[in-house]
């Protein structure tokens, strides 16, 4: 078929294909750290990706569709969903080296989140601050050890370092989950809100790193990791604000917020299925 006539006869489908290509390429560039410059508080790549995804969504829901075109519209909607699900950096498909780099890339955010936890105690009511401090006391040591292991794994992705990282990321994840359950016992609403927000920031990064570690682990290793997870994600999920997690993921990967929400939901589902 003549490409020019195909575009002329099927402009909507052709436009959708172009937008999907733009979203896909932008996602790959973002994962490789290519920004093409700044655009406001984000990057040019992020802006292009967000606009293309938004236009694709509008195209898939064109209010001018006729009943005879409903099948075509449904296909476009499916392609829009596929385009949004393509780059899921948490969920495998990457080499050991790229996963190691991604884990290390998260470490500055983890350190900032732990620092935020340390400073949050001053925002709480006097009676609540000691409870919060006790619940989060192990974050500093555990996070620094995990960061050191991630850097060691990037330098030398050996089985020994991976085993250490598997154990440590679960240890920190369990500390975070335990802290959440302690924080929800805080009676003062403002104190509880501050406490949960600070803990969740750490938890989001730890969950991302856990998923990345899982992606380079065998099924037997993941099962062993899950066996040490006594406080399950299901026990703390209802206390979490998914929009906060999505915002952190979106900022880290330079992606649209809707895209990040999909990633967070996929990771939570994968963690639950794995036994965490």
Short description, anyone?
The chain is mostly helical.
Question: What features would you describe in this structure?
Answer:
- The structure is a single chain.
- The protein is an all-alpha fold.
- It folds into two domains: 3-85; 96-274.
- It is built from 13 helices and two strands, in the order H-H-E-E-H-H-H-H-H-H-H-H-H-H-H.
- It has helices spanning 3-9, 11-31, 44-60, 70-85, 96-120, 129-135, 139-155, 159-183, 189-215, 219-227, 233-237, 242-253, 257-274; strands at 38-39, 42-43.
- Strands 1-2 form a two-stranded antiparallel sheet.
- Strand 1 (38-39) and strand 2 form a beta hairpin.
- The radius of gyration is 21 Å and the shape is globular.
- Residues 60-88 have low confidence and may be disordered.
Note the main attributes of this structure:
single chain; 276 residues; mainly alpha; 2 domains; two-stranded antiparallel sheet; 13 helices; 1% strand; globular
